Each structure stands twice: as structure tokens, then as C-alpha cells.
């Protein structure tokens, strides 16, 4: 599936760059920047593989992925001062990456012959866990748990993709439609500021 | 073992609700709340399974567990304003869950034919890692490392359970006695505020 | 490989002590101190084994390692007030542990017949992930991502070790030379305050 693989390589490069930027903003050194970029890019697939027991983990079977993420982080460290001009492009590539990661993750779940709900979840985990691990390493509550339709886009993409396969839509067509509709959903969510309900948390008394 | 399984389902529901409440208090959106509830409820068994290499992980083999935790989190999001009235009941169900998780975790260790100390540890990890992962996602030092007899109750329950099996006590009886004595220990610890020693930390100079 | 194993046992003891000290400084109770010491000492090898799918995980196959780390943490809790006198010795043992962990981790990668870059990375992960997990549990950005040549020493040691094996140097000699040169590098880095470049992070605008 060449298109999906190409999108994947572009996406891990972009994710590594955005992780590297966040590391620089937190005063990390060059090692920390490379590591944060790599975790952001490859953490989702790694979490999925470990949870599913799908060995070898992606980047261990394909160490060249590490060249992409480490290379991207180093380039970022050199040109970061100018990268905010590219912010719009990054948001679009990030959205494309989110849906591509999700479709790829669903594919791994299917290959493991998991229950359909687990297949979708494998996609969602692949889509969001890189950013979640990045935020934990940066010592902040994961953004994905707080705001914007991000995980929801992954969930929609996964359900849509698995649903089409269940309807026996041709696999390449299902991939294209899932990528397209998921990406459109993400762009619309960003454009119009769609978000899930949250709650005036401070008023709520805890149970512990 | 039907009683233990019933307690397990009640316990993951209660844990998911308490995780959801904590997510709401931190201003998470609906996805974050469902995720935090699920991690709190199922994180302990997941950590145990990954560390032991016990695949498939519990909720991947039994995706219906996810319906319990996600359903519990959504219900919590709707009724949270009134749940503090149930605080006492939650503390009791949480204590029962802690000992049930521990006994179930020991069972997985036994099934893997691990060393007795690892069997006990598998129980302790099952009992406490859900809350530990919840606290990491909420960006705070895990409560279980700081105060109260919580991990100690899990340790006691695990040692007691494995000890009775070693003494060739009937398995169902050992389960009942471990659940009962562990739960009693937890209730006494809460009632009388028992805690482990800690240390005037700030006076101590670091080594790094 | 008796020398390496002896160094390993000394190193996990010292790492457990330094983790325990950090737990005491954060006001953790005795359970938290034992757990933080154990995670600091054994977390690197655990992360490596899970990522590589190398089961059983080290301390599950060798539960006696837990006696070392828990024993070391308890002793530390008793004598911590006097341990800062030993700071210099700790830094040296920590440096020796870093290179020993790295060489041992490379050995596991070789045993799994991984790609050379993954072998080196298995060493680096073994060397640094204990401290990284310790810092996450203490709710701070991992030190290893921020300052000093620490990960770089592990990387150098791993590349040097794997390179010598590739040049068909005798395995024991390669181990000794890697330990010696890695340790020397670490001592020089500490003595002269060598560090990787970092970046005036706050000026850089984010992409998210």
C-alpha cells in the first residue's frame, strides 16, 4: 500500500519536527530533542504493538524510521527559529498523519484478528499515543485528553474504515475514503473550533 | 470463579467512575474522561500482563470490559455533581476492588508458573498500577507512593493468598479468606489512618 | 561474564539508593521509596525487554534482583541523613552502572539478532530509562533529556562496543574496553562539565 506508506513517512517526519520544537521550547538538549521527536512520531505505533503483543515493534523491524525522526529533529534544531511560518502546513500534515496512523493501526489490529472494537482502538492508540507520551515527558497533562476533536477524529476514522471493510468495500478504496473523510473532519474541526463537552471541573468534589 | 469475577466487574466500574471524576476535576473533555476512567480501571491488569508477557492483555481478550469502563465514565459525566454523596460507598468498593485485583493478579502469576515473589508482585501491580497511571496522566506524583496503607494492603493480600495456597488450603477458601482479610485490613487502615513511615524529605541532601 | 555481572549488582544497588533518596526528598512513604528505588535500578532493563519482546523480563527471571533494590532502598531510608558524604562515590558508581547497563543491554540486542542500530539503542535504553521513569514518577521532566553528557555516554559506549565486536575483537576484551572508555568519558564529562548544545527555547514559537 504505497500511498499509505508514503503518507506515513511524511507524517512521522512532521510529528518528529513538532516534538522537537516542543523539546526546544522546554530547554532540552540535542539528545532530548531527538528523543522527544522520536517518541512523538513512533510512540503511538509502539504503544499499539506492545498492547497487542505485535512483535517486533515497528521501528525495531524497520530501524530506518529512526533515521527519519532523528534526522527531522536535528534539522528542526537548526531551522526552528523560522518554522513558525510553516505552522499552517504543519497542522495539515499533522491531521493527515493522525488519520494515516489510525488506518495503519487498524490494519495491525485486523492482521492480529482482533475483535472489531479492538481494531478501532488499535487505530486510535496509534493515532494519539505519540502526542500523549510526548506530553508526559514534557510533564504536562496530555492535550489529547483536554481539548479539540483529535481523538474523536481518530475514532471516527477507525470506525469508518472498519465499517467499510465490514461492508466488503475494496480495501484500497476503504483506505482512501477513510483518509479523505477523516482528514476533512479534522480540518473542519480545526476551522470551526469544534470540541467535545467538558465540565466545570473545579466545582466537582472528588471521591478519594 | 464467579464471585471473584462479579466483584471484578463491580470494581472496574467503580474505578472507572473515580477516574472519570478526577478527569472532570481537571477540566478534561469527554474523551479524556473516558480514557482516564478506563486507564484507572484496567491499567493495573494491563501493566501486569505486559510485564509478565501474558498475552493477550485482559481487555483485548475481553473487550466487553471496555463497555463497562466507558459506560461508567459517561454516566459519571452526567451525574457527577451528585456523586460525592456516595463517597463512603466508593471508598468501600475501591477497597474491595484493590483486594480483588490483587487476588486476580496473583492468579495470573500462578498460571504463568512464576516465582512466588513474582506471583505476589503480579498481584500488587494489578492492584495499584491503575491509580498510578491515572496520576501520571493527571501530572501528579502517584498517591500510592505517598500516603496511606494502600500498596501495603495489596502486598498483605498477595502474601496471605499465596501463603494459603502454599499451605494447600482449598483454592476457593483461600480466595475468600484473602478477600475478607485484605478488605478488613484496608477498612481498618482507613478508619484509624494507619500509614507507613515517611521522612522529613527536604532536609535530606540529594546525590545527583 | 562474572565481572560484568558483579558490576551490574553493584550498579543496581547504587541506583536503587539514589532513587530512594529522591523518593525521601519528595516525602514518599516507605513503599514509595522502595518502588522508586526499584524502578530507577531495574526500569531500564524492563523497558528494553518489553520493547524488544525479550521475555521473561530480567527481574522476573531473576527475582533476587528485587532483594537487592528493595534492601538497598530500606537501608537508604535508615541512613540517608549521612549519605551525602558519599556523593562522590555515588557519582562514580552511577557512571560505572551507566556503561555496564549499556553493555548488558547491547548484549540482549545481539542475542535477539537485532539490527546493529537497534543493538546500540537497546544499550542506550537500558542505560537511561531507569532514571527517565524515576523522573516521570517524581513528576518532573527527565533530567537525561535536559543536561550533561549522560545519554551521549551510553550512545558512545554502545557504538564503541558494537563496533569492536564487528571488528571481531574478542568479546571479553571488547566488554572491558567499552566499560573502561565509556567510564572515562563519563568522568571527563562530569569533571569538565561537558554538555550537548541546547537552545534558548522560550523564543521559539510552537506549532500546535
UniProtKB/TrEMBL annotation, chains A, B, C:
<dbReference type="InterPro" id="IPR005115">
    <property type="entry name" value="Gly_transporter"/>
</dbReference>
<feature type="transmembrane region" description="Helical">
    <location>
        <begin position="30"/>
        <end position="47"/>
    </location>
</feature>
<feature type="transmembrane region" description="Helical">
    <location>
        <begin position="59"/>
        <end position="80"/>
    </location>
</feature>
<keyword id="KW-1003">Cell membrane</keyword>
<feature type="domain" description="Glycine transporter">
    <location>
        <begin position="7"/>
        <end position="80"/>
    </location>
</feature>
<dbReference type="GO" id="GO:0005886">
    <property type="term" value="C:plasma membrane"/>
</dbReference>
<feature type="transmembrane region" description="Helical">
    <location>
        <begin position="149"/>
        <end position="167"/>
    </location>
</feature>
<keyword id="KW-0472">Membrane</keyword>
<feature type="domain" description="Glycine transporter">
    <location>
        <begin position="92"/>
        <end position="164"/>
    </location>
</feature>
<keyword id="KW-1133">Transmembrane helix</keyword>
<comment type="similarity">
    <text>Belongs to the UPF0126 family.</text>
</comment>
<keyword id="KW-0812">Transmembrane</keyword>
<feature type="transmembrane region" description="Helical">
    <location>
        <begin position="116"/>
        <end position="137"/>
    </location>
</feature>
<protein>
    <submittedName>
        <fullName>Membrane protein</fullName>
    </submittedName>
</protein>
<feature type="transmembrane region" description="Helical">
    <location>
        <begin position="173"/>
        <end position="194"/>
    </location>
</feature>
<dbReference type="Pfam" id="PF03458">
    <property type="entry name" value="Gly_transporter"/>
</dbReference>
<feature type="transmembrane region" description="Helical">
    <location>
        <begin position="89"/>
        <end position="110"/>
    </location>
</feature>
<feature type="transmembrane region" description="Helical">
    <location>
        <begin position="6"/>
        <end position="23"/>
    </location>
</feature>
Amino acid at each position: 500500500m504505497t500511498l499509505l506508506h508514503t503518507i506515513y513517512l511524511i507524517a512521522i517526519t512532521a510529528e518528529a519536527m513538532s516534538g522537537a520544537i516542543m523539546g526546544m521550547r522546554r530547554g532540552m538538549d540535542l539528545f532530548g530533542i531527538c528523543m522527544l521527536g522520536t517518541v512523538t512520531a513512533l510512540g503511538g505505533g509502539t504503544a499499539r504493538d506492545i498492547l497487542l503483543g505485535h512483535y517486533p515493534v515497528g521501528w525495531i523491524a524497520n530501524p530506518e524510521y529512526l533515521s527519519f525522526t532523528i534526522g527531522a529533529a536535528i534539522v528542526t534544531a537548526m531551522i526552528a527559529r523560522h518554522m513558525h511560518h510553516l505552522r499552517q502546513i504543519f497542522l495539515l500534515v499533522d491531521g493527515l498523519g493522525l488519520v494515516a496512523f489510525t488506518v495503519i493501526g487498524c490494519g495491525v489490529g485486523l492482521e492480529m484478528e482482533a475483535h472489531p472494537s479492538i481494531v478501532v482502538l488499535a487505530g486510535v492508540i496509534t493515532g494519539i499515543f505519540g502526542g500523549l507520551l510526548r506530553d508526559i515527558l514534557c510533564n504536562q497533562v496530555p492535550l489529547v485528553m483536554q481539548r479539540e476533536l483529535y481523538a474523536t477524529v481518530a475514532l471516527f476514522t477507525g470506525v469508518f474504515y472498519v465499517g467499510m471493510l465490514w461492508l466488503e468495500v475494496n480495501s484500497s478504496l476503504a483506505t482512501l475514503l477513510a483518509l479523505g473523510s477523516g482528514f476533512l473532519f479534522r480540518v473542519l474541526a480545526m476551522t470551526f473550533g469544534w470540541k467535545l463537552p467538558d465540565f466545570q471541573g473545579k466545582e466537582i468534589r472528588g471521591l478519594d
